[in-house]
Amino acid sequence: MLQRIASLTWRRSRLVLALALLAVIAMGALGAGAFGKLQPGGTDDPASASSRAAAVLDDTFGGEQNVVLLVRARSGTLDSPAAERQGKDLARRLGEEPGVTRVTSYWSTGGSSLASRDGTEALVLAHIGQNDTQVASAVSDAFTGERGVLSVRAGGAAMVNHDVTGQISTDLALAEAIAVPVTLLLLVLAFGNVLAALLPLAIGLIAIVGTFAELYVLGSVTDVSVFSINLTTALGLGLGIDYGLLLVSRFRERLGAGDEVPEALRTTVRTAGRTILFSAATVVAALGALLLFPQYFLRSFAYAGIGVVAIAALAALFVVPALLALLGHRVNRGRLPWADAVRRPEAPLWRRLAATAMRRPALTALPALAALLVAASPLLGASFGGPDERVLPESAQSRQVATALERDFDGSDASSVPVVTERPAGRDRVAAYAAELSRLDGVVRVHASTGGYAGGRSVQAPARAHAAMERDGVQRLTVTTDPAPASGAAQDLVREIRAVPGPGGGQPLVGGRDAELIDSKAAIGSRLPLAVGLVVVTTFVLLFLFTGSVVQPLRAIVLNALSLTASIGAMVWIFQEGHFSGLLGFTPMPMDTSMTVLLFCIVFGLSMDYEVFVTSRIKELHDAGADDRTAVTGGLSRTGRIVTMAAGLLAVSFFAFATGEVTFLQMFGLGSGLAILIDAVVVRGVLVPAAMRLLGRAAWYAPAPLKRLHARAGLREGSPEPEPETDPDRVPAGV
């Protein structure tokens, strides 16, 4: 297949490029509307009890009040005639906004739960569609700021989603503004000329544009998270660089070895193309595991990741060879002054590093292993949670409102736990159930259709209770609690509430932020073993087909697991324990469960990407008859510069996200970038050669039946590639 691709791109290069250009234009036109199809949120399990509670509340009672307007009297008190008049008018106008329902205010109820302890702030509550960013924007624009004698700020779950989405758009623009020029500069330094440096960026551009089109189509038929855009940009740019570096460097190497352009192109596509195919397959296998999870937040990263990998691989196999066929020797034109300093394809530093590790494998590996284990050690104290308003900068209005609710209000209705019972029950049973809930430690009060309860006693008559607490036999209760939202105590209290039998028998449905967090973690935990098993088994099979050995896949999986745990341990040390919080501007909080799973899949896939890069060259030399030491040293010396440059450039793409202000995207960028560098430098540079030396000939072992299977089904690139000549006058500059 690869030979036919090489022949096609050589003979029909202009046709291939014309078709690619038309495809990019079409995908660009389609993908331009992708942002409008994507949704915020998506971290909840749609089959969970908390999601069922939310659905019943939406269908029966018009949903929970997820918009909070925090109102402060700029002069006088909240009960002054001017403040009361303007407060009631504010609530009336809010209720008239399209898409806004269930408006309640301090002035309409007189409830103390809607006023701060010092009496200077009051709440106006409302409901909008949780992912309706247009309505959220309209509410923010029309009702916040200084309004007569009142000062108004907007918060609540819907506004947090709105602020996160807006901040991500800002952060994405900043990340791209940093990553693209820095990447281009580093590519120019790597290749020694601008023309060669542009080829990897072409792959990245095609991959990003194509994936935007894919997300537009998928977003039209299913829920897709807006956060998938970030992975599309970072991974598209990064894989374009990876694949482009591999192709262009191999092509220039073969030209320098004396090959004519057609032969250099065939060799490049046959060898580097095979590596790219296996690399793409391993990354797809890792990201495909995200499809096992019920949260569309995680599935969306699989949609984006699989799409961007597939399109990047296609662009690398067709577009870049066609460009190289047209350019030929001109790919080396326009060298910059320092380019002639690089004389040969081997990297002396990597050769020395590999040789040292091969001479003293145990002595070299032990310090590296110790460093990785130390980096991984914070995982022992890891705690896991979900995203909330704390992922936003302190300047975000919705975060300021959440802070004020926790600091200044005694268990306001804005942070209550909704409970739904679907089985019909008499009023006496409803009253007894509400009283039982109010006895739980941490419960401030309970509102039900039968009245208000605290400490097991009725404290509010039904006439003073909130309206619409019972409809069509469905009972709705609001449990106002004392523990801080998202805390361990708050989650324990939700479990206690769930343990109290409902008034009509059976388990009631408990919703709200903490219930959603409990259910989300349970859903991820139940599917995580299957996801990990799928990634490991698929990776093992692919690497066996690639190498013909059962030891090489095991060695790769173990070493990649080490770099993965080290990088996630470092994220615990930074984001949970709070180191560098002042520098990066985030609030320490438990590790985001979904983002940790995402990091596992991305990092494992990209680690295998570099594993394939290195192993392919080692295997070439091994198959050509080189002894183990020569094959490993030669393979690393020829791929070391490519791997480190590719890893460095990909890390730049990810690190750019750490400049943003949304905490879980900072973790995504910093964690991915750090893991890539650990893998490229520590694992590939030290542990791989040391492990290969310790394993010796056993590294290539496979039982006889599997050897026969590999002979029939394993993928090969043809005859081993001859050793490239190293005449300094004939080897091009660059990578």
Automatic annotation (TrEMBL):
<dbReference type="InterPro" id="IPR000731">
    <property type="entry name" value="SSD"/>
</dbReference>
<feature type="transmembrane region" description="Helical">
    <location>
        <begin position="198"/>
        <end position="218"/>
    </location>
</feature>
<feature type="transmembrane region" description="Helical">
    <location>
        <begin position="639"/>
        <end position="658"/>
    </location>
</feature>
<feature type="transmembrane region" description="Helical">
    <location>
        <begin position="595"/>
        <end position="613"/>
    </location>
</feature>
<feature type="transmembrane region" description="Helical">
    <location>
        <begin position="172"/>
        <end position="191"/>
    </location>
</feature>
<feature type="region of interest" description="Disordered">
    <location>
        <begin position="713"/>
        <end position="735"/>
    </location>
</feature>
<keyword id="KW-1133">Transmembrane helix</keyword>
<dbReference type="Pfam" id="PF03176">
    <property type="entry name" value="MMPL"/>
</dbReference>
<feature type="transmembrane region" description="Helical">
    <location>
        <begin position="557"/>
        <end position="575"/>
    </location>
</feature>
<feature type="transmembrane region" description="Helical">
    <location>
        <begin position="362"/>
        <end position="384"/>
    </location>
</feature>
<keyword id="KW-1003">Cell membrane</keyword>
<keyword id="KW-0812">Transmembrane</keyword>
<comment type="similarity">
    <text>Belongs to the resistance-nodulation-cell division (RND) (TC 2.A.6) family. MmpL subfamily.</text>
</comment>
<protein>
    <submittedName>
        <fullName>MMPL family transporter</fullName>
    </submittedName>
</protein>
<feature type="transmembrane region" description="Helical">
    <location>
        <begin position="303"/>
        <end position="327"/>
    </location>
</feature>
<dbReference type="GO" id="GO:0005886">
    <property type="term" value="C:plasma membrane"/>
</dbReference>
<feature type="transmembrane region" description="Helical">
    <location>
        <begin position="530"/>
        <end position="550"/>
    </location>
</feature>
<dbReference type="InterPro" id="IPR004869">
    <property type="entry name" value="MMPL_dom"/>
</dbReference>
<feature type="transmembrane region" description="Helical">
    <location>
        <begin position="276"/>
        <end position="297"/>
    </location>
</feature>
<feature type="domain" description="SSD">
    <location>
        <begin position="195"/>
        <end position="326"/>
    </location>
</feature>
<feature type="transmembrane region" description="Helical">
    <location>
        <begin position="664"/>
        <end position="687"/>
    </location>
</feature>
<keyword id="KW-0472">Membrane</keyword>
<dbReference type="InterPro" id="IPR050545">
    <property type="entry name" value="Mycobact_MmpL"/>
</dbReference>
<feature type="transmembrane region" description="Helical">
    <location>
        <begin position="224"/>
        <end position="248"/>
    </location>
</feature>
